[in-house]
Amino acid sequence: MKNEKGNTCKIPRAEAVKICVKGTVQGVGFRPFVYRLAKSMGFTGFVKNTPRGVEIHLEGDSSVDEFIARLREEAPPNARIDTLELASSQSEGFTDFQINITAEGQALVFAPPDLSTCSECLEELFNPSDRRFRYPFINCTACGPRYTIIRALPYDREKTSMASFQMCPSCNDEYNNPVSRRFHAEPNACPVCGPETFFVEGETLKKGGIDIAAERIRHGKIVAVKGLGGFHLMCDPFNPEAVKKLRLIKQRSRKPFALMARDVNSAKSIAVISPEEEEILTSPSRPIVLLRKKMEIEGVSSGLSTYGIMLPYTPLHALLLENIPVVIATSANPRESPILKDESEIPPGTCDCMLTHNREIVMRCDDSLVKVVDGCLVFLRRGRGYVPEPLELRFSPGKRVLALGGELKNTVSIVKEEYLVTSQYLGDMKDLRNQEYLDEVISHFKTLYSFEPDILVCDLHPAFTTTKKAENWGRPLIRVQHHVAHVFAVFAEHSIIPDAPVLGIAFDGMGYGEDGNVWGGEFFVIRGTGYERIFHFRYVRQQGGDLAVKEPWRMVLAYTLDADINVNAVDALVEVDARIVKNAENAIKKGINAPYTSSVGRLFDTVAVMTGVAPEKIDFEAEAAMRLEGVALADVEDYYPFRLEKHEIDMREMMKTLLKEKAPPQVKAGKFHNTIVQIIKSIADICRSRWGINKVVLSGGVFLNALLMSKTCHALQEAGFEVLKPEKFSPGDESISLGQAYYTALKLKEQE
Ligand code: ZN
Ligand code: ZN
Ligand code: FE
Q1: Which ligand places an atom closest to the C-alpha of 182?
Q2: How far is the CA of 601 from the centre of ligand 1 (A)?
Q3: Given this model, what pLDDT does residue 208 score?
Q4: Separation of 162 CA from ligand 1 center, angstroms?
Q5: Considering every ligand atom, which ligand is closest to the CA of 170?
Q6: Across residues 338-350, what is the average pLDDT?
Q7: 223 forms bridges with which residues in the sheet?
Q8: Which residues line ion ligand 3, judged by CB < 5 Å?
Q9: Positive or negative, the Cα torsion across 343, 349, 351, 353?
Q10: What is the pLDDT of residue 189?
Q11: Which of 16, 69, 413, 629 has its CA 20 to 30 A from that of 158?
């Protein structure tokens, strides 16, 4: 989507005009566009890439106003003009308009994201008289691979994995022709000179083979398919045997599988799609979008009300799905490990056959996963199509920062001059393979951006592998508390420098607290980089540590004991083996393997169990909480009692009422959501009267809950608060490195 927030400037009257454009203007066909526009208007001069964007030099009598207007209006679909500055300049007597080719070392942070096949290329793909008819690697300056094939900047063909393919004369002509759509389209290719696909089955290897792969999918086989950022496993979602087999291979009992639909209509046959959702689904980033089910496909997304659906985003996918309306397209990697980019990484027994190709994936990158809430984009995973779009800080902290993030769902971020870049989703750092992925990305960023950090940033948790890595780097180190990082991540994307106090809220599963406890339900008053934790949820024991996440009845027990409720009065506890419950009870009372937690994630789990919607053992993160959200009635208006005492939010009264109450789970779930909204609203009111606060930040993985996010925003906005929420980045732990980096940048700025 085009997004312009440029300032309007006075046009100076001079012999020549210099225009500096910042934003996403490299690798998206911007220079050829400027060339055509300038030529058509009779200007002479040049356009060139600069470290910060694009510079245009105009000479001639035509209207610069009109040029600027058309520059904004007619920019290529994937370009984004952030700022546009004008200055008068000396005439150099140009007789023509030229595109100056990028000089070595000039690009700063502008590696473009991968873009889905554009409509013009698609037309050529299916046009029998086109020389690229059915060629699976067709692309142009408006589309095609970028981030996943770039080895170094500036973005030129020799620095991509296309370097090994020598362009044929026809491709070369397009590449050098400023009016061609393929002028400096770095991955430009055709059947004569470019990459090709291969179908592999047992010992046989066939060139091409897209049609055979499609045939195998239709016949219930599991096919590994090499795409843009890695391998998918694909199969027919309507074949229960194939789905069952895929669940065995992926070792997933219930975690939903993503689907790829041939086109919007095919997607509409299985899901309800709003106009906003359709816009995201068909956008050049082509993420997986969570969409409400219209029909149940057995075993694809059990117990949930949505499917994750994406559309084909490369010509290869478009050809593969030409005669198949929907396929399952899940990443081919084993559970918890990085997405696979190379055939050699695929473990034996993963698939029946394979469709691969010989264009190397330089940087692996997962599909992005999003949903639309109240018309806004919410990221559940940020990767392909969005990474590595930089954030402009509007100040330079003077030092180069590398933030290593936390542990779960990690990313890394760098700050170089006035830009911040956050990596793609890297997974959980407990796994060695993901640690290697993190190293891979750091060294990639170092080459890509000629980056060497002056300062490292990590989490407060002493045992995280990222903390240890940061400590061993041999550079000055800043540690940022997990939930503070969550809040600052939202500041970052909204370019907020909190000069006046702001209320920052962070709700999630867990983060290491400054008192050594497990935090996760935190309210901060923040000013500058200073903060005070003014409220948190009352601590309860998280018996068994991580086990309490997988077996949420343990949290029910902790809340039950804390509120002095008879254990035998709680159905969910009666169902568990009495001896195991007794052991856990003793451990809670003695505080053995039972850290204190203020986690709202655990609170949601608890209520999910108490209302009877949670499974006894969860299969994937937040499964219980997602089910609670799924059943909650949105139009319930009541809420449960709670108390705010000093710094503590006390839920004991709520627990007693909820257990006694004879109401269906849908009502209880609705009332519980309202209770959390009321708590937020009450604390915001306190902050307004004490500190005059009018701005509230919502952050943390719990805010992936659409009902909670939506109701909270409405309640706060109705009361006149300005609400800032995550829209360009995930609310969850993927944004920890972003928050760490921004916090540190602000700290450096304060010290100047
Ligand atoms: Zn194209
Ligand atoms: Zn060619
Ligand atoms: Fe978190």
Answers
A1: 1
A2: 43
A3: 97
A4: 16
A5: 2
A6: 94
A7: 234, 353
A8: 508, 733
A9: positive
A10: 98
A11: 413
